[in-house]
């Protein structure tokens, strides 16, 4: 069977094509473009496979795009085509045909998208967790480490003498030891979670936590179906509900929506990359540990092995299993620790993430499934404008 795979490397406007053949290429092996420049077909020994390209070739590009089959027979073929710099309009997937894309990390259900009529339900059984009109205000949570950064800025103002007296920082509310204060009727929102007062929620109960290095706080579950929803936060006493476990209706005019966990996990990785300034992370639990490397945060791919013929916006992630018993953590100040951070996931989320990465290798040709003989290569689908109902 012929396996075709295409990557649109957005930042460098390049199309990378790879083909895996069951036998060695020969004179009858040929790659062609469709008349409208949207499909690539490869014929080999009477078999033809086609794939929809992440972009449509313009007439000029069609005339210059050359898919030359190497003279030396091979089972693995690759082509690279430089694309024209061209602005265009997005298609239904939020992917631009002209070779550009909105490179923002799209995040559903931010505070400014929610209203006093917003209702939250359990994703598994549709039980109401936060009823409409219960929350009068939705506010964005500050990013990770905001208190530490504010304390650093206050102590190291360039135009003021250095002062180690932190007593006035606490009164200002941004010392490193400051705690967030929750209010009834006000919900806090970050990219992956809602943080609410328990009194604003219904049909949620805490269950005993299974002892695990990354599960220090009481898990929360739906009282009807016992589906895991999030955890009770020890510092604030609030309910932190994970968005990937919920369905939400932002207002009365729309229905409820929920999203694939794969997209939420990709969103989590991209947010961690942006806020922490690193691309490598480790995930650790008692019987499982692996490292992640966000190798290409934003690209568009097409694969003949994909369940959908449409191109997919994705993040390319390199990953490798590591020894779970090795407790060497990022607290040791080494050169490696400065470019790597710990990623906190529940055990269920870690298992789902690892399985998704492992399964996604099937979209890649065999020769593209490893990197430097030690990293596995995986793909995670990203949110697009289409997920947000943006035309």
Brief digest:
This protein is of the alpha+beta class. It has 5 helices and 22 strands. The chain is 13% helix and 31% strand.
Characterise the protein shown here.
With 391 residues, this protein is an alpha+beta fold. It folds into four domains: 80 residues, no CATH class; 109 residues, Metal Binding Protein, Guanine Nucleotide Exchange Factor, Chain A (Beta Complex), CATH 2.170.150; 38 residues, no CATH class; 128 residues, no CATH class. 13% of the residues lie in helices and 31% in strands. The chain contains five helices and 22 strands. The strands form four sheets. Strands 1, 2, 6, 17, 18, 19, 20, 21 and 22 form a nine-stranded mixed β-sheet that branches. A seven-stranded mixed β-sheet has the order 9-10-11-15-14-13-12, with no helix packed on it. It starts with a strand and ends in a 10-residue tail after the last strand.
Topology:
Blueprint: E1 3-9, E2 14-20, E3 30-33, E4 39-44, E5 47-52, H1 59-64, E6 76-82, E7 119-122, E8 128-130, E9 137-140, H2 146-155, H3 167-172, E10 186-189, E11 193-196, E12 204-206, E13 219-222, E14 228-232, E15 239-242, E16 246-249, H4 261-276, E17 280-285, E18 288-303, E19 312-321, E20 340-342, H5 347-360, E21 370-371, E22 375-381
Parallel strand pairs: 9-10, 17-20
Antiparallel strand pairs: 1-2, 1-18, 2-6, 3-4, 4-5, 7-8, 7-16, 10-11, 11-15, 12-13, 13-14, 14-15, 17-18, 18-19, 19-22, 21-22
Number of domains: 4
Helical residue percent band: 10-25%
Largest sheet composition: 9 strands, mixed
Give the strand content. Answer: 25-35%
Taken from the alpha-carbon principal axes, the silhouette is elongated
Q: Strand pairing plus helix content: what structural class?
A: alpha+beta
N→C terminal distance: 37 Å
- How many helices? The count is 5
Number of DSSP E strands: 22
Helix and strand sequence? EEEEEHEEEEHHEEEEEEEHEEEEHEE
What's the rounded overall pLDDT mean? 82
